[in-house]
Write a structure and sequence with these properties.
The chain has one domain: Amino acid/polyamine transporter I, CATH 1.20.1740. The protein is globular, with a radius of gyration of 21 Å. The protein is built from 19 helices and no strands. α3 packs antiparallel against α12.
């Protein structure tokens, strides 16, 4: 028997206040720490412009059709991520619902730790002078990323995420995105303009974004980086956008909304690059960033800015504010996956589902909070492999298993027949093949580096 919708159990269905509200919330989910840190350090690992080109091609040809599929699955079933695959294609697809749940919970458990570091860096920049040199910055980073400080940052960030999600789709998530996203764009644009006037700005763009070497297009490391970055950054494949799309009305133009989300996400990645690369080049930090780990930018950025005195401190405050906004609009979408699933499957109230999930995720994230090596492995498994696997299964489900659902949902909301056909073609032939290849590379890499 198909599971019943919340509305059928007498609860009023939740809805977005407007189409713009949904787009901003979905863009908020996509734009996150992945854009600010991930893009900068992956782009700096030697791929140059080839990395950027590959990244954009993968986003458009592979991620965009999957994002549309994920939205269609959410809207057409009206169910949360756990039940949507079963509703669309029967019991055989139940494991995909569980995969969504596991991936979202796993990612949020370490994402909240990264948010904690970000919040702590913001407080530090507000209250104390920036670290004077690299050694001081490293000590400072070790202090915030281990022990009590890291645990506290993790718990507070999760609690804040819980407060927003508990306030509901319209009153919490949409409201946060409506003021957060415009503010984020404003800060980003302001900082990019400021960075353009740094002494070595041109050199920064040149080394990281404009250096063209065609052979890098076939370099496995560049391909892997572009692939992982594209999927994590768009955030499709784990049900976060699916959960949001379940609150969408039947008429909203999904392909156009998906294109806006993808456009904003890519623009933020590039703009973040236009801030970090000039800073890195102007303050001689290229070596540090090149040998990057998750912590690098937390160390390099404040050190570079320290030499600018009060201006540097102001820039650091604005940058970490921007990063924290980006992070929380993403973490709420991750929390919405298990929360909406519990509400949908067990009929729980939102508040009860939120606090149970927050408690479990807080516990699950403790090992990552206490040990950066664990965090990196969690990222490799959940952010690298499970997320991409979810994308593959979504492409198969809506491209092959339930293609009729894909077609009729989009045509009913006014998408032209030729656009639907093109999207379906990409979903059937391009996405699964490309994702399978990317997955093989990611898993091989994971296994190879496991001991190291
Ligand atoms: N896209 C987010 C980021 O770039 C992270 C995320 C992944 C959000 C998956 C939702 C789903 O930080």
């Amino acid at each position: 028997m198909a599971p019943s919708r919340p509305a059928e159990r007498g609860q009023p269905p939740e809805r977005w206040g407007s189409g713009l509200g949904f787009v901003l919330a979905a863009a908020g989910s996509a734009v996150g720490l992945g854009n600010l840190w991930g893009f900068a350090y992956r782009a700096s690992q030697g791929g140059g412009a080839a990395f950027v080109v590959l990244y954009v091609v993968i986003v458009l040809a592979v991620c965009l059709p999957v994002l549309v599929a994920e939205m269609v699955l959410g809207r057409s079933t009206g169910h949360a991520p756990l039940l949507a695959p079963v509703t669309a294609a029967g019991r055989r697809w139940a494991p995909l619902g569980w995969l969504f749940l596991a991936a979202a919970v796993g990612i949020l458990s370490y994402y909240a730790v990264l948010m904690g570091w970000t919040g702590r860096s913001l407080l530090h920049a507000l209250l104390e002078p920036l670290p004077a040199d690299m050694a001081a910055a490293k000590d400072y980073f070790t202090a915030i990323s281990s022990g009590g400080d890291a645990v506290l940052g993790h718990l507070l960030s999760l609690a804040l995420t819980g407060v927003v999600v508990a306030a509901g789709v319209r009153g919490g998530i949409e409201r946060l995105s409506r003021w957060g996203m415009p503010l984020l764009f404003l800060l980003l644009a302001g900082l990019a303009i400021w960075a353009a006037f740094l002494p070595q700005a041109r050199e920064g763009y040149a080394t990281f974004l404009l250096r063209w070497d065609a052979s890098k297009l076939a370099d496995p490391a560049t391909i892997r980086n572009a692939f992982t970055q594209a999927f994590f950054s768009i955030g499709t494949g784990i049900g976060a956008i699916l959960a949001y799309a379940a609150y969408l009305d039947r008429r909203s133009p999904i392909p156009r909304e998906a294109a806006s989300v993808v456009g904003m996400d890519t623009a933020v990645g590039l703009m973040a690059g236009c801030i970090t690369f000039p800073v890195v080049a102007s303050f001689g930090l290229a070596d540090v960033v090149g040998s990057s780990t998750v912590g690098t930018l937390f160390i390099a950025l404040p050190t570079g800015l320290a030499s600018l005195g009060a201006t540097g401190r102001l820039v650091a405050v604005l940058f970490f504010t921007l990063a924290y906004i980006a992070a929380i609009t993403s973490s709420v979408s991750l929390l919405e996956v298990p929360v909406s699933s519990l509400m949908d499957r067990l009929g729980w109230s939102r508040g009860r589902a939120v606090w149970l999930c927050v408690t479990l995720i807080a516990l699950l994230g403790l090992p990552s909070a206490l040990d950066v090596a664990v965090l990196e492995r969690m990222d490799a498994i959940f952010g690298g492999v499970l997320l991409i696997l979810g994308g593959l299964l979504l492409a198969v489900l809506l491209g092959w298993g339930s293609s009729q659902r894909f077609r009729s949902d989009l045509e009913h909301s006014g998408t032209s027949g030729s656009l639907v056909a093109a999207l379906l073609w990409a979903l059937r032939w391009v996405s699964p093949v490309a994702i399978s290849l990317g997955l093989v590379v990611s898993i091989t890499d994971l296994v190879r580096n496991w001991g190291g």
